[in-house]
Specification:
The chain has four helices and no strands. The protein is mainly alpha-helical. It has one domain. Helix 1 packs antiparallel against helix 2 (38-63), helix 2 runs antiparallel to helix 3 (71-92) and helix 3 (71-92) packs antiparallel against helix 4. The longest helix has 29 residues, at 3-31. The protein is elongated, with a radius of gyration of 15 Å. It starts with a helix and ends with a helix.
């Protein structure tokens, strides 16, 4: 296994845990009828940036000779997460504070599933 593939695998686990923690945080915030904090927003954006880095590491591992077990499906989950997270962030700002909380928490749950499926196919 190459260094890039190893980092890609490790970061997949980190992102899955990160997404689950943010999803729980956002869900609790939503049910408490609170607005999303700056800490949550910045953590969400960090997760988005790390997702892009994860994709670049995966692409690098692929170029250097690696290949996921179910190649195309694995890549679909990655591309989905890279496009979905910023889209959900932008969409969440088109409504009130409660909608922002719901959309961002929901987005975290959805990408947690995508990260899990990505690790299962990788």
């Amino acid at each position: 296994m190459s260094l890039l593939a190893g980092l890609h695998g490790y970061l997949a686990t980190v992102l899955l845990i990160f997404a689950l923690l943010l999803a729980l945080w956002g869900t609790v915030t939503y049910f408490r009828n609170q607005r999303v904090s700056g800490g949550f927003r910045s953590s969400y954006l960090i997760m988005t940036a790390v997702t892009v880095l994860q994709g670049l590491l995966g692409l690098g591992a692929l170029v250097t000779g690696g290949s996921p077990r179910e190649g195309i499906l694995h890549m679909v989950y990655g591309v989905f997460a890279v496009l979905f997270l910023p889209g959900a962030y932008l969409y969440s700002h088109q409504g009130g504070e409660r909608r922002e909380t719901l959309v961002l928490a929901g987005a975290c749950w959805i990408v947690a599933i995508a990260y899990f499926r990505g690790t299962a196919t990788g």
